[in-house]
Design a protein that fits this description.
Shape: elongated
Order of helices and strands: HHEEHHEE
Distance between the termini: 25 Å
Largest sheet: 4 strands, antiparallel
Number of helices: 4
Number of strands: 4
Helix content: 40-55%
Structural class: alpha+beta
């Protein structure tokens, strides 16, 4: 992308484009990159769960799951929940919605909870 911008600026320098024309070209370049479909390199790859002791800061649990496994678990879990009569939606849990959110762009920390009674800090991160 930077090479394309440099070419446009060089064209302005050489007199082949006016500044206004160059701005339109650069805006078009910027808008075309915004509409690009998500590439595999930008999709989330890991679902990380960390439980640490609040007082010592030591990790109690550290789980790293590949997103392909999490996707499978969410698809399978929603099927079995409906078969087993478990009503997750009444508890505000929609596994298909969570699956879609993760698949289409949800990134970062999705859970950050500290339990003062047990002295544990739980983080769930999608990277």
């Amino acid at each position: 992308m930077d090479e394309e911008r440099l070419r446009v600026l060089n064209m302005v320098k050489e007199g082949k484009l006016t500044v206004d024309e160059a701005l339109k070209v650069i805006e078009a370049l910027d808008s075309s990159t915004d509409e690009r479909p998500e590439t595999p390199e930008t999709k989330a790859r890991w679902f990380r769960i960390r439980v640490t002791d609040v007082n010592s800061g030591k990790a109690k649990i550290s789980v790293n799951l590949p997103m392909i496994l999490v996707d499978w678990a969410l698809r399978t879990g929603s099927k079995f929940a409906s078969i087993g009569g478990v009503d997750l939606t009444s508890n505000g849990i929609d596994l298909e919605e969570l699956r879609n959110a993760i698949h289409y762009g949800l990134r970062g920390k999705i859970v950050d909870v500290t339990d003062d009674d047990s002295g544990e800090h739980v983080e769930i991160v999608v990277e």
